[in-house]
Each structure stands twice: as structure tokens, then as C-alpha cells.
Specification:
about 180 residues; alpha+beta; six-stranded mixed β-sheet; two-stranded antiparallel sheet; 4 helices
Length: about 180
Amino acid sequence: MQTIQKPYDMIVDFITGKSIPNIGSEVNRQKVAHFLVTEKGYEKSDIQVDANIEVLFQGQPYRSSVDLLISLNNKRFMVIKCVAGAIDTWSREILAAARVYDKQYPIPFCAVCDGNDALVMDSVTGKKTGSGLDAFISKSEALKILKQITLEPLPEKRFAKEQIIFRSYDLENINVKRNIQI
């Protein structure tokens, strides 16, 4: 039996300028990226698209990616998951991703956004810091926050649990670029 690959419409990514398949919540990600640059003062170079993340599960590496990662002055500041649908249902996945992206320290903030609404959280405490697009922290405020906070690693047991949580949620993501052949 021959496998037939579904044709995908292609769009140009706002951050990278590359042609990408328009699947899942890609249109929402484009809106978020555009908003961060035009309204919140970030440079395109501050934002990484499809940032690789690797966690361990039962001693084996599990590789995935996060939609958007904001870094300033060589420090990761916020990780963002762009979704189609209810943003609350995705908050635990991105919180876990922020906590285990790097063993050195949790990324201080994380967010889930559908292009029109957002939920922003403090990654260390897990508490909501705001909702709506205006809850995204501006670049100037982010730079101030990064000067004031201490970035410390999670305790080892907590880190291990968060890796399991991230992998469990991430496995359910089916309509994503990593699952298609272009």
C-alpha cells in the first residue's frame, strides 16, 4: 500500500523568514510572534522558534520542541506554547517545559496563547501572573526582572517529576510539525 502525504499550505514564518507548513496552531504562533515584536519590544533575534528540548524518561532521552523561547542577554526568560483551543488545558505542559528546559535553572516565565488570549505564569511558583495579551512582559520589563531575580536549579526530585509531566503531556501533541514529512 502506498502512503499518500497530505499536502500542506505553506506560510512564511515571521521570525525566521522560512517557509513552514501551516498546521495546527501555526497561525496563532505567527500572531504571538508578531505581537511580541511589534507591541512588546522584542527583537526577532530574542525569539527562538521550535527550540529543542530534551528530557530523560526511564533513562532514555525524549526529544521535542517548544514553540517560542525568549532569551535576553544570554539568559532564557520565557517559553511559550501556542495553541488552538482552550489555553487553560495546556498550562501544565508549558509549566513543566519551563522547569526542565535546562537543568541550570527553570525559565522564569511561561505562557500559553491562542493568538488572542494568553495565560502567563511564574515558572518557579506555578502561579498565574496575568491573562490576556497585555500580560506578556515587555522586553524592557523583562530586562529589569532578569537583573533582580536569582536563577537557581530545581531540586533533583522535582526536576525528575517535571520531566515525566512534560513528556506525558507532550506525547499527546499530534498536529505538530515534527510529526509530518514535508
